Amino acid sequence: NTVGFGGRVTGDEEPKYLNSPETPAYHKSFVLYGLNWAKESIKEKKVAILMEGYMDVIMAHQAGTTNAVGTSGTALTPEQLKLIKRYTSHVAFAFDQDSAGLEATFRAIELAQLAELNIQIIAIPVGKDPDECIKQDPAVWQKATASAHHIVDYFIKNLLSASFENIE
Question: Beta strand pairing status for 48-51 and 90-93?
Fold first, then answer.
């Protein structure tokens, strides 16, 4: 059943996403965009790929990544992770590669650890988000999802690359 509506601007205007207001039937913090389409694939593949926006989820599904869901333009919440745990104990985060997306990734990792989920990170190799990556090269996206990093590997890689960037 439809519980709300959301839209995305096509230009540089703000806000980037506009959602229905909160109602008795619609609480963004309790909803994952695309879960109705992804739940069987999540159970089959034993992992849910979490993304930030609708367009990321739509493009992922079109590219064959049918276990992707979105946070509907909101930060990931404990309630959304409870939804995921109905279908799997494994999550892979594929948030935007900008500073806001990286901050969202770190917050999501903390929440997922508290929810006792197994966590992986999908590094977006081209573009700033899954949508752009898929548009540029769907094969690169498929390779990135297939080689998601365990969080420890992700942190080590990022710490090492940050350390080397600071060496003059």
Answer: parallel
* Spatial CA neighbour of 72 closest among 50, 98, 100, 43: 50
Rounded distance between C-alpha atoms, residue 129 and residue 152, angstroms? 22
pTM, two decimals, is 0.88
> Are residues 71 and 51 in contact, defined by beta-carbon separation less than 8 angstroms?
yes
Instruction: Report the length, in residues, of the chain.
Output: 168
- What are the C-alpha distances in Å from 63 to residues 42, 80, 134? 16, 24, 7
- Residue 151: φ, ψ to 5°: -60, -35
DSSP of the chain, one letter per residue? Answer: -----EEE-SSS-S-SEEEPPP-SS--GGG--BTHHHHHHHHHHHT-EEEESSHHHHHHHHHTT-TTEEE-TTS---HHHHHHHHTT-SEEEE---SSHHHHHHHHHHHHHHHHTT-EEEE----SSSSHHHHHHH-HHHHHHHHHTPEEHHHHHHHHHHHHHHHT--
pLDDT in tens, 60-92: 999 999 999 999 766 899 999 999 999 999 999
Q: Is the pLDDT of residue 30 over 80?
A: yes
Contact between 35 and 80 under an 8 Å Cβ cutoff? The reply is no
